[in-house]
Description:
74% helix, two-stranded antiparallel ribbon, mainly alpha, 14 helices, 2 strands, globular
Amino acid sequence: MINIDIGATAVAVLTLFGIYSLMAISLNLEYGVAGVPNFGKALFISIGAYTAGITYTRTLPLLAGFEAIHPCGPTMGGALQLRSEIMASQPAAGFINLALTFLIAAAVAGAVGFAVSYITLRLKEEWFLALVLLVGGETVRIVVRGADDFICSHNGISGVAQPFYFVEDPRSSALLFMLLALALALLAYVYSQRLIHSPYGRMLKGLREDEDITRGLGKGVSLARAQIMAVGSVIAAIGGALFALNTGFVNTNDYVVNLTLDVWVMVVLGGIGNNRGALLGALLIALLDRFTQIGAIALNMSGSELEFNYVRFIAFGLILIWMLRNRPGGLLPESRLTTNAHDVAKGLIGR
């Protein structure tokens, strides 16, 4: 029998919820709104994480007035100690480094998302983009894994501390980081809601429903989809940076195809095309993640040989099958009314 700290568990779940919300909103903008199938979501999330691994090992010491120590090989221990001391004693350097991490990750991910999608979506079949991103994500992961000087190859980089590491009380530190993750998720939600209900957002939905008609109205189909891919990629990269800071570790094994499928489950479960549905899906998956981890720990402590972690994948499969069979629109389906023009028209008719 294990004792569960309800407060710490709630903070952990809400932190994960904030991070997952960024990932789910980004995919919902791309696929739910614009109809762009992104099966390389792990690629853009990993860009944020790899950027954090680089900035926290190369840029952070410079901001604090120290010479950067090579984070891999024989100097790994010294580099880790230096990072920890800086994050504990110089919070200003940590926050500046975090801002730089977000900016660099957003710029790189946005440029990659725009370039790849603009080239591939010029073809008639948009699912070619899904294949390119799926293969591209694995290719980048393998290349990074084999690059010794990037994030220390298969060893990864540890000690990538969240910006509130300087707070002595671990509970307060975790709580502040949770608030940061939720605040960024809220900003992404508000921005995406305003975008969806704008004329540009309605044009994107037109592309999703009938590309030929939208093109016939003079809209730039390839450019519009490339733009929304860039927006979604930026949000995903920020989520990836937060994901790395939350775990404190950057390793290529965390950014495999399974992560992409996790984000797809969030969107399909919550409701395709509905940002509130994306948030609901992110919350449910965050809860499932946490409780499967608790279940795995409990079984290991009891001496059971059952690998409970695999229950998560079974549950995901069952969820997808049930949703596609019974509620293809998700738990919170997209509303048919996306503008108040209907109410205005009714008012005019009533006169």
